[in-house]
Amino acid sequence: MSEKNLPLSNEQLHKLVDDLPTPFYLYDEKAILENARHFKDLFSWAPGFCNYYAVKACPNPTILSLLEKEGFGSDCSSLPELLLSKASGITGERIMFTSNDTPLEEFAEAYKQGAIINLDDISHIESLEKAIGTVPSLICFRYNPGPERTGNAIIGNPVEAKYGVTSEQIIDCYRIMKEKGVKRFGLHTMVASNELDGTYIVETARMLFELCVRIQKEAGVRIEFIDMGGGIGIPYRPEQNAMDLEAVSKGMQELYNQIIVPAGLDPLKIVFECGRVITGPYGYLVSKVLHVSHKYKHYVGIDASMADLMRPALYGAYHHITVVDKQNQSFDHTYDVTGSLCENNDKFAVDRMLPKIEKDDVLVLHDAGAHGHSMGFNYNAKLRAAEYLLKSDGSVVKIRRAQTYDDYVSTLRFEGAPVQI
Question: What is the pTM of this model?
Fold first, then answer.
């Protein structure tokens, strides 16, 4: 079971809602830092351990800077994410650039920043050379095991995935880059998303360890580091249990000693690129009830919409909902909790048992600290919500202002400026 607690008391949340326009995101600094340190400590046995935080999970420089001070790197997949990392103090090989269908200018910027470039396809070798005019001294490849592994519901089965180099291609990738003069090599994979079964992560480590040995034998290349990717999930539902990361760490260490050490590949650096498990449980979407309506079903309409948090509409994902002040009341009413978009799937919950809800109640959606605000959009001309950080000293600071109408129209040209053809 996982507890779904609020980061503030009911009284403090009401005070915050009185002072700030809803909806807004709130992140718990103290909890994020404690969790980041715990994650790092769990894998302290691993040579050169580092977590490259997935910027896409929460691309806010305040959050990135907090994690940078804890020794985290960043996992980037676009030019703006590279620039955000740089602005947050994350530079050089503390950036892992893992992208797909990559524009040449993004390869060029990653190389300029000294980031580790992780290629998604054997054809990208030529694209990278064209972009930077040479080859980097360090290169990494993303491996797709195909039918050797099964994926999960979010990321899909590897044989259906657009990502990564196949088993048949992987040795040639390293041979080619070795012949081109590359001296240092990494190996990456990402075969699951939001996974709660720790054995899946351990088996991924086994797969990469064994592949390191194969690459050494068949390509004469020693892998310097493996990147386990992300994929570690969080218990969105109260009845779910968090992944047993201590067991994962122990299982990986045992495999390291069984496979890597006898093969003479020790030390082999081990890194992750987790985002969700680092910040996910410590972000909250705070909203107010606008309407309670009774049609063929009972609806609670709030001032947030799927433009603010699209996971429930996109994946059918569950996000726990707390009705502030009513945590101890009976959950004896069935509601669909909805937003105001002109889309019938704009629902945060369907047939959810909750206490009786009334207009102006405050609702808090849990586990929104990753892939929440970052996946937002402007459909129906909905404006993006503000983000706030609950500091360790109890103060609350704005880390992203709410979007305005002027922001929304800033790229438009109302006069229809002519285009030169």
Answer: 0.95
